[in-house]
Design the sequence.
């Protein structure tokens, strides 16, 4: 009976103590003190003696108190690192203002969140009892406060007393692993970004080449109908018999002009022994054209005179036989096709005497006139780059005519493309190579013939050519370890030491690292090249991006100034405690006018 009563009393005391212990845990408030008493415990009674309540000696603890801020920007989290080298309790309490937040305890070595809770009122918190198995996995732990809205307050925590020597040895090993990884990965990121820049440059060059080829093919297709028509007419003329000459009785301009068929005497004044023209080849001519004349009674000392637009000039003549001679059409100037005339003077009684008829000659326009310029742009409005083709339409064109393009007050001669594409009404030429202009300009175009006569001016829009340089710079920013408040301000890129390739653009790379420490996580905003203005009308064409993150860290571009002369790139970055880091590379492709160096 006594034994049963003793057991009942012992069980009752134990239950009451257990209930009291649980109540104490629920009402517990953490304060920043050096040591805090452990919860009360009951010691088992000695054998054969009444049970008595014993107070357990408090376990030693370390204390942490740290302000935190959530600003509504990624990563939407604040973190602090702690070292846990022995089993025991982690006890976290929060005092904060703002929206509800979530508090979590993470074993950073295993990446495992061991306790997490959303808290809605101040002075709330969370606890976790660290086991020996947890400690065996690693000594790095973090306390994390997260929320997408703005909040700020204080983290208060106690955790088992740290064995500093043991923790320092472990942290040195973790840091060495991180730094080794960084050294391995950084060259890969740089190489990857440069490869990406090179690939983009090659793609740009291919696009440019494809565009130029497509433009060339279009210009040729537009010129082809005129070429076919010209070729057909030329072939028809070759197949057609030589046409009889058109004979006129009186001098050109006389009121009583009358056309007579070849071979028919023009008047009684024509002697049977006088030279007489039967036919001409070719039928139409330009200045300098060699015309073959068939007929009768030709002599070596005969003379030929042309009358063109009432101006009379003696023609060069080559005697071939009494039935044939050749003559060269003299220079003349005309904005349209016209009819010229020639007559012959023969030696009669030792006196050069004009025969009593003149012969018509169809002459072509010699003053070139531009009616349209067609570019590779389907709208025929341009702009067109130097070194690309244009189609010029008009009248009075000759293969030997010069096409001039005035670029930045420099009078440059364009190159004729494939002579078979050029007719008296169309010419295909290549815009001259030019440099020194950064914006679209209007370039006057005119044609000058062999006599120095110029056509009226027609304008074409030119786009600037891009500099044929590709540069790669490797600039390494200093690590901003523990210095999360500093933005990275870079000065103008230094052109000395640039490496150039013929690839059509310019490019560079800058590499930035932000390290987290063991204790704190950081975040911030970098202004890359905040004070940089490219010189000589160079502009930013593209911004390239590559990154690598270690543990809980990341970064992203928030703004660029592509299309301007500013290289400024804004980057938002963050990392957490426990030696995380974010590493990123920014590549840039810049463009400038051809022939205008960056510096």
Sequence:
């Amino acid at each position: 009976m006594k034994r049963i009563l003793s057991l009942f009393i012992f069980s009752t005391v134990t239950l009451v103590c257990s209930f009291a212990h649980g109540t104490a845990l629920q009402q517990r408030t953490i304060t920043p003190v050096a040591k805090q008493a452990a919860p009360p415990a009951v010691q088992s009674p000695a054998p054969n003696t009444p049970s008595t309540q014993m107070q357990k000696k408090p376990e030693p603890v370390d204390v942490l108190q740290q302000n935190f801020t959530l600003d509504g920007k990624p990563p939407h989290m604040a973190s602090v690192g702690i070292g846990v080298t022995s089993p025991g309790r982690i006890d976290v309490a929060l005092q904060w203002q703002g929206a509800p937040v979530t508090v979590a305890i993470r074993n950073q070595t295993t990446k495992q969140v061991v306790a997490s809770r959303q808290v809605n009122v101040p002075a709330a918190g969370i606890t976790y009892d660290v086991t020996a198995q947890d400690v065996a996995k690693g000594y790095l732990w973090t306390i994390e406060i997260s929320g997408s809205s703005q909040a700020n307050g204080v983290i208060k925590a106690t955790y088992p007393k740290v064995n500093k020597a043991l923790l320092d040895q472990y942290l040195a090993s973790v840091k060495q692993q991180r730094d080794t990884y960084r050294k391995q990965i950084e060259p890969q990121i740089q190489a990857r970004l440069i490869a990406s820049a090179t690939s983009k440059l090659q793609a740009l060059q291919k696009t440019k080449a494809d565009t130029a080829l497509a433009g060339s093919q279009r210009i040729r297709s537009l010129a082809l109908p005129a070429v076919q028509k010209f070729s057909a007419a030329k072939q028809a003329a070759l197949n057609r018999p030589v046409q009889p000459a058109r004979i006129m009785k009186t001098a050109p301009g006389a009121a009583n002009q009358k056309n007579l068929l070849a071979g028919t005497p023009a008047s009684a004044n024509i002697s049977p022994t006088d030279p007489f023209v039967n036919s001409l080849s070719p039928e139409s001519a330009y200045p300098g054209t060699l015309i073959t004349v068939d007929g009768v009674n030709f002599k070596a000392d005969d003379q030929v005179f042309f009358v063109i637009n009432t101006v009379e000039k003696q023609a060069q003549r080559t005697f071939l036989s009494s039935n044939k001679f050749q003559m060269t059409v003299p220079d003349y100037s005309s904005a349209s096709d016209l009819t010229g005339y020639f007559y012959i003077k023969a030696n009669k009684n030792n006196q050069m005497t004009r025969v009593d008829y003149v012969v018509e000659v169809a002459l072509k326009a010699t003053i070139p006139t531009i009616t349209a310029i067609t570019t590779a742009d389907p709208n025929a409005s341009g702009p067109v780059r130097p070194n690309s083709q244009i189609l010029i339409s008009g009248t009075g064109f000759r293969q030997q005519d010069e096409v001039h393009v005035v670029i930045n007050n420099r009078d440059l001669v364009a190159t004729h493309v494939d002579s078979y594409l050029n007719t008296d009404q169309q010419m295909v030429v290549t815009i001259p190579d030019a440099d020194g202009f950064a914006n679209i300009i209007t370039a006057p175009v005119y044609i000058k013939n062999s006599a120095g006569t110029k056509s009226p001016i027609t304008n074409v829009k030119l786009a600037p050519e891009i500099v044929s340089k590709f540069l790669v710079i490797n600039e390494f920013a200093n690590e901003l370890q523990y210095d999360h408040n500093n933005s990275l301000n870079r000065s103008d890129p230094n052109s000395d030491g640039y490496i150039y390739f013929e690839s059509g653009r310019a490019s560079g790379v800058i590499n930035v690292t932000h390290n987290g420490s063991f204790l704190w996580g950081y975040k911030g905003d970098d202004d890359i090249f905040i004070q940089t203005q490219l010189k000589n009308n160079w502009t930013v064409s593209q911004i390239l991006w590559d990154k690598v993150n270690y543990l809980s860290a990341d970064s992203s571009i928030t703004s660029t100034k592509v299309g301007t002369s500013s290289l400024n790139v804004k980057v938002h970055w963050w990392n957490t405690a426990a030696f995380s880091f974010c590493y990123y590379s920014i590549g840039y492709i810049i463009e400038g006018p051809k022939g205008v160096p960056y510096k």
In short: The longest strand covers residues 539-550.
